[in-house]
Amino acid sequence: MKFGPVPLDQAEGGIAAHSIRCAEGVVRKGTRLGPADIAILRAAGLSEVVVAQLDAGDRPEDEVAHSLALRVAGSNIRVEAPFTGRSNLYADADGVLEVDAPQVDEFNGRDEAITLATLPPFQPVKAGDMLATVKIIPFAVDGTVADTTLAETGALLRVHPFVRRKVAVISTLLPGLAPKVVEKTLRVTAARLAPAGALVSHDLRVPHATGPLTEAIRHVRDEGAELVLIFGASAITDRRDVIPAALVSAGGMVERLGMPVDPGNLALLGRLGSVPVIGAPGCARSPKENGFDWLLMRLIAGLDVTAADVARLGVGGLLTEIVTRPQPREEPPAEMADSLPRVAAVLLAAGRGTRMGGPNKLLEPVAGVPVVRRVADAALASHAQSLVVVTGHEHQRVEAALSGLPVSFVHNPDYPSGMASSVRRGIAALPESVDGALILLGDMPLVGTGLMDTVIDAFAPERGRLIVVPMADEQRGNPVLWSRRFFPELMALEGDIGARRLIAAHGEAVHEVSAAGPAPFLDVDTPEALAQARALAPSAASPENAAE
User: Fold this and answer.
1) What distance in Å separates the CA atoms of residue 56 and residue 32, rounded to the nearest whole number?
2) Boundary of a domain, candidates 133, 161, 189
3) Start and end of every MoaB/Mog domain (predicted)?
4) What pTM did the predictor assign?
5) Does residue 48 share a domain with residue 62?
6) Is residue 326 domain-resident?
7) pLDDT at position 353, please?
8) Which of 53, 332, 356, 508 could make an SS bond with 336 (beta carbons 3.0 to 4.6 A apart)?
9) Do the domain assignments include residue 154?
């Protein structure tokens, strides 16, 4: 192939190397120049043009791209028509993509003119997803190179459809494992299986002991389960632990305990005859991607996963930093080693309270004390080390209601934009020495010192308790305590949604504490709610008597 500038008189039949825009029109890159194109370029004042001119043995880019794409495409993959030297490959079925990575490397090493890019191996795909693209870099390829590559290339990609549909879930139980954890795990697992067309066929819950678990494994196998998932009440720490011991006792075998994927290290891969078994790591209770997903999707697609396959997952196996893991990794200074986490309180008192229909709800009395002062008094008597009050609407009146209290005020002029702007101002005002922030709502006068201390005392970053939330009747309330780990995400909030989505996104970091009564839920947004608070509030306004 010849390439370079040629006089317009010699350019007909050549391929335009670049797009040329002029008043008479556009000659696009890749156009095989004809008389009309030459006339446009001449009228624009050009005397020459950069073109590619094919030699006798050259093969055009689209022809080569399409031929190679058809060659590398395996089962359940379709190839679409080529354009501009590119031919794309798409999934024809839901399943898992298998890529012959060494052969793809060899393919891409044959000649710089020929390239193949794919999705990562073993990625779950849906029918219609783009899987790969063959792209020819120049406008033509030497015919000998093209023919040799075609002759020496076979199918390099294939989609394995999901085939296992009946998935048994067995949960082991210990006294400290809350039933809601098991229920949530079942919901998360069902959601994981749904895109693959698989269903939870069995939901068995047995004591965390070898005997009962052995019987449960045999039972689901005998009833036709095609895959068994075991969620232990306690993590697997040895091949002689309860879950691997029960699998062996049931007649199965352990292929591999532990995998080089994080999160997901403590996974077990085994089998009972032809039925695969996964001892799920703790992170599998979360919907976030982890090593469990890598095993689960391959097995549902009917792929055989061996111990050697698991061992090869380390490169790329660091999926994300685990939010519950203590950071920084180095040892804390000696003087801090035995200290309790330092918590500051942030009181949000900036809103307009339009639903109240007139008066500023924060300044309305409850048991003789303004609503916002009741919350501040309780916070100052709690285990929180300091209190920052974020003001906005009628900030001078709010500050006056808190006069004489040892608090720091931060004014938020953007308060009409929503609660998120106040959260950002409050977090930004905290000192670097603070380990966590207790976010208080200024319109919740029944939240007392007792409830605040329950939340603060449960905060334990070193144990993975990074977000602490009061809970009553399966409902989460306020106040919520946030580890410094989440300050950047709190600072990035927008609008009036608050931080609910962050709690949902970081379920593995959430610790719930029991709360009684309406205190965590009652905000005085309306006259009716204010009347309810007044009826329920203790007659004395002291923090010790504030509702918990």
Assistant:
1) 16
2) 161
3) 168-301
4) 0.66
5) no
6) no
7) 77
8) 332
9) yes
Residues 408 and 473 in one domain: yes
Question: 350, 377 in Cβ contact below 8 A?
Answer: no
| pLDDT value of position 214 | 98
Ranges of the chain with pLDDT below 50: 328-338, 540-548
Are 369 and 489 members of one domain? yes
Q: So what's the pLDDT on residue 336? A: 42
Q: In the numeric block, which tokens belong to residue 26? A: 């556009």
> Residue 90's domain spans which residues?
58-161
**CA–CA distance, 125 with 297 (Å, rounded to integer):** 10
Residue 233: strand, helix, or coil: coil
**Mean pLDDT in the chain?**
90
Q: Whose structure tokens read 């898992």?
A: 96
Can you say whether the dihedral through the CA atoms of 442, 448, 453, 454 is positive or negative?
A: negative
List phi, psi (to 5°) of 339: -80, 150
The reply to whether 412 falls in a domain is yes
Specify the number of domains making up the chain.
4
Domain match, 147 and 184 both: no
The neighbour count for residue 141, using CB atoms within 10 Å, is: 27
Q: What is d(CA 205, CA 185) in angstroms, rounded to the nearest whole number? A: 12
Structure token digits, residue 64: 């080569």
Could you tell me if 395 and 352 are in contact, meaning their C-beta atoms sit under 8 angstroms apart? no
Q: What's the pLDDT at 220?
A: 98
Residue that finishes a domain, picked among 110, 144, 161: 161
Tens digit of pLDDT for each residue in 287-343?
A: 888 999 999 999 999 999 999 999 999 999 998 766 665 554 434 444 444 457 899
Do residues 530 and 361 make contact, with C-beta atoms less than 8 angstroms apart? Answer: yes
